[in-house]
Amino acid sequence: MDDKLHQVAVTGVIIKNGKYLIIRRSLKKEPFAGKWTVPGGRLEIHDYLSKPRDTSVHWYNVLEEVLRREVREEVGLKIKDLGYLTSLTFLKKNIPVIIISLYAYYDSGEVILNDESMDYAWVSLEESKNYDLIEGIYDELVMLDKLLKGEKVGEWENELDVEQDVSEMNGVEKKKIGVGFGVMMLKNGMVLLGKRHFDKDKADSVLRGEGTWTMPGGKLKYGEDFEEGAIREVIEETGIELNNVKVICVNNDKNEHAHFVTMGLFSDNFEGEPKVMEPDEITEWGWFDLDNLPKPLYFPTERVLENYKKDLFYKNLEVENENRN
Prior knowledge:
- There is one protein chain.
- The chain is an alpha+beta fold.
- It has helices at 46-49, 62-75, 125-128, 137-148, 159-169, 200-203, 226-238, 299-324; strands at 7-16, 19-25, 36-37, 40-42, 78-92, 95-108, 117-123, 178-187, 190-196, 213-214, 217-219, 241-242, 246-254, 259-267, 270-271, 282-289.
């Protein structure tokens, strides 16, 4: 993967009479088939090369023009008064995609969907909770709702988690069991482990575990298979590409902070060497002998390793018994 190569896209939340336009992606439109989102699309080189420069070397308002075009093509509307909301990135077939999220006001037209979308709705912030939105969209709507009310808006944050915390403080229990996974990667009898950041806010786990050693892993996303999630997380965290991976155990991990069902996965077929891709979360990666593991271990990782060793022990015992017979 070329760490300097990115695709650039722009999305827009359209405002009309205090409500926001959301559209449902076609069941054939990957990724996020069938989920609800907002209009948008990719920046392409002809979006500006065919136009005169605004200075001797620059083109201005490129993303704004892309969003105007995409909104016309996707929903048939004209928009005005565009503004910046936030930014994000993700990997699409191992290609980093940067998305600039804007907002705009409805100008004119009636919604006419193209073949990439199958439905639309104008919703309030509260109504948007009833739709299967792509992860992160609701939080953008929260940001915009605050902005329109004249409130101070900072950087993006997971507002669903914030709402849960507030509910708990008010005595309303809304905690949910999460689903996560850890990927045990074995090479020449050595397992790959990373050191979590000592700062609990950077260690990036609701189960905590700052300063511990962990295998690659993360939370399962909506619609993902376990294997898909493993491939995604491993390349995001280490730069390594898994060729195959399988489930080896299921654990029930819980402490005073959170409760997760953790899938333990295994792979000994992969390409590349580990790199520190997210230094604010994992500060180093290393290969360790299964009989000489670093301390302290992240407790869900320790349980996956224990299950692997236990299974290996019984397999060896079966082989010994077969040889005796």
